[in-house]
DNA sequence: CTGTTAGCGCCTTCAA
DNA sequence: TTGAAGGCGCTAACAG
């Protein structure tokens, strides 16, 4: 065991120990060329004895294949993304690819570095959740020009011909707002994330559609443009909610981080939901230090978004899919919980407190 | 632009375009050997024009350095781990290393595959959160024998001489239980995760210590051995909590996933916390479909665990740290919220509902 | 079926 | 300061 210590054994040493040629060892490992039972045994034994691990670096250099996919997400600590990654990883593993995940922290600069890194690592395809920052058209299209397959997910850039997978933003948001309307709310405020993101614009469109259909008037004062920062969103809400006379019946948030900010805002100005104000949001929330009644949410199929995106990417890589960009849109689900219900129900119905109806 | 399309440009093409030797291009890129201003310009221009990205594969093969670290965690969707990863990634980036993260899903088999994969990828060091499965001594010690630096975090294996970073398990758990005692609870049930994990055993030890100090009797019936599966834990709780005569005043859970199971258990048997039963848990929770009062938790310094672990790993890699394994233990923090308070306070004090005291 | 050999793209001597 | 050449470990093609 001592000899195998520091210096990693190479295929040559395995060959020497097994008393075969390096080619044979390679054949055993890759399985691409049949090898006699006898030699296979000898080779396997040598591999085990030396604790040999084939050098993927060298293999990749030779084959110019890395069997690796890259995924760039804004922030791993936003609970939506780990699920996406899990989906993508599963799809990749099924085809014996591995996945390397990195965070852009929504910085365009960092995103560019990461893209460059992934290209240097020679990943065979890239899954990208674009950073919420402007000016990425050329960065993205350069990837395509370099012949590296890419699929954009969740946040799909505008006007760039690229494969994409995301939720049906408009329909999902519409569903959320329609639910609030159905619960009897009339003055509904919409709070969005950065309008630079196309999906935020789509979601807002869906919200407006719901209001229009219900013949509620589209009051400009009831559309609040927030961002993804909890504290800023909380402050914004506080300010808008201060005056009881103009206060909305309900608030709908078009994404999770913003939604969390809204809840903080409610807390900060002493409003309870659903008693004082109803609430629903896009995305499940991670809540670690906010007191919460259960929150009605529009749930994205996060795992599937990741899985399907990786699936498309792999199909491109393996040339099983050719031609025009595909734009896959997956439906969302509405989980009705307490924040959107009337207060009376909540107080009376203790069972429902724990087992809210789900549509 | 067309020529740079499919086939990735190599250093040779850059050299040709810049009319210099390949060595010069390499010198410009690595910066290890000074190059005249004039040639630097020409080279940079060529790199930009060709959209050239140095091939890390080839570089690694040549230098036998990958500047890459690997981290194996049980499950990225457990909110504790993304924070750990973030910490580790930050430390790595500071030294210009990159980090590749993979999930073992607590399977010993998968963990072994991943370890093998990382070795094949020639990562220069490994951060390991050991899978909650037995028989890994040899797997782990083989890494050390191969001369690959490794740091175990969070779940530190028993009796293996390896660098490790985790929270002060016993002290942290003790703090949690002492808090419950201070809040006036006398019959306190402890529910643990798999006892195969050393940190679970340590936490249990801390809990017992707290009970002993308070001269509360250590009732075997009040120590429940659960696991990390929400449904099984919920079922276990339901069973133990059914009989009001033997029901504890409070429950302390030694980890997050188990804690979430306990909350489901409360829900399933119609118990409210803190009104009917007090509760506190190790770890912040991700709660997506459970109604929740805010939960008192023992918070681990997740980011720092990752950061410090990577720091130690890098020091080993760069030989700045030698000798015996270091065992770093970081203190936890107690976040007092509602689940551990008396019901009276909760109802009366509406402000505290939103801004609980924090010790 | 087995053994031999030529590079994959890059970095690092070393000589000029 | 610059250029030329060798080889990192592996696989794929080919010859035996």
Describe this structure in words.
2 copies of one chain form a homodimer. By secondary structure, the first copy, chain A, is α/β, with parallel strands linked by helices. The first copy, chain A, has 3 domains: 11-54, no CATH class; 64-154 and 302-325, Response regulator (Rossmann fold, 3-Layer(aba) Sandwich); 170-299 and 339-354, Rossmann fold, CATH 3.40.50. Chain A is built from 14 helices and 12 strands. Chain A has helices at residues 11-18, 22-30, 37-50, 56-63, 80-94, 108-120, 137-145, 169-182, 198-213, 230-241, 256-268, 302-317, 343-348, 350-354, and strands spanning 68-73, 98-103, 125-128, 150-153, 163-167, 188-192, 223-225, 250-253, 278-282, 296-299, 327-330, 333-335. In chain A, the strands form 2 sheets. Chain A has a 6-stranded parallel beta sheet, with helices on both faces. In chain A, strands 7-6-8-9-10-12 form a 6-stranded mixed beta sheet. In chain A, helix 11 (256-268) links the parallel strand 8 (250-253) and strand 9. In chain A, helix 5 packs parallel to helix 12. Chain A starts with 10 loop residues before the first helix and ends in a 5-residue tail after the last helix. Residues 1-5 and 343-359 of chain A have low confidence and may be disordered. At the A-B interface, helix 4, helix 5, strand 2, helix 6 and helix 14 of A face helix 4, helix 5, strand 2 and helix 6 of B.
């Amino acid at each position: 065991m001592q000899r195998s210590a520091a210096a990693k054994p190479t295929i040559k040493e395995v060959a020497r120990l097994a008393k075969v040629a390096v080619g044979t060892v390679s054949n055993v490992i890759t399985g691409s060329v049949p090898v006699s039972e006898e030699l296979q045994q000898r080779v396997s034994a040598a591999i085990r004895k030396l604790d040999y691990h084939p050098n993927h670096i060298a293999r990749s250099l030779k084959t110019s294949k890395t069997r690796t996919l890259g995924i760039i997400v804004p922030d791993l600590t936003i609970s939506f993304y780990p699920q996406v990654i899990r989906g993508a990883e599963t799809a990749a593993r099924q085809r014996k690819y591995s996945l390397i995940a990195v965070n852009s922290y929504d910085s365009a600069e960092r995103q560019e570095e990461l893209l460059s890194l992934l290209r240097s690592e020679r990943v065979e395809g890239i899954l990208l959740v674009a950073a919420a920052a402007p000016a990425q058209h050329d960065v993205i299209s350069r990837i395509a020009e370099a012949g590296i397959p890419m699929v954009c997910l969740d946040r799909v850039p505008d006007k760039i011909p690229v494969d994409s997978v995301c939720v049906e933003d408009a329909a999902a948001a519409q569903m959320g707002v329609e639910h609030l309307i159905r619960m009897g709310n009339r003055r509904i405020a919409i709070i969005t994330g950065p309008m630079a993101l196309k999906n935020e614009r789509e979601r807002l469109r869906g919200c407006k559609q719901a209001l229009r259909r219900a013949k509620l008037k589209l009051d400009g004062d009831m559309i609040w443009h927030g961002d993804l920062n909890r504290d800023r969103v909380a402050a914004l809400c506080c300010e808008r909610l201060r005056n009881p006379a103009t206060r909305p019946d309900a608030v709908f948030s078009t994404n999770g981080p913003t939604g969390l900010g809204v809840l903080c805002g409610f807390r900060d100005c002493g409003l309870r939901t659903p008693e004082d104000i109803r609430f629903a949001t896009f995305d499940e929330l991670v809540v670690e230090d906010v007191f919460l009644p259960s929150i009605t949410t529009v749930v994205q199929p996060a795992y599937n978004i990741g899985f399907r995106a990786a699936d498309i990417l792999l199909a491109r890589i393996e040339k099983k899919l050719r031609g025009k960009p595909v734009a896959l849109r997956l439906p969302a689900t509405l989980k009705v919980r307490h924040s959107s219900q009337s207060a009376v129900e909540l107080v009376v119905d203790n069972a429902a407190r724990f087992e809210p109806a789900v549509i």
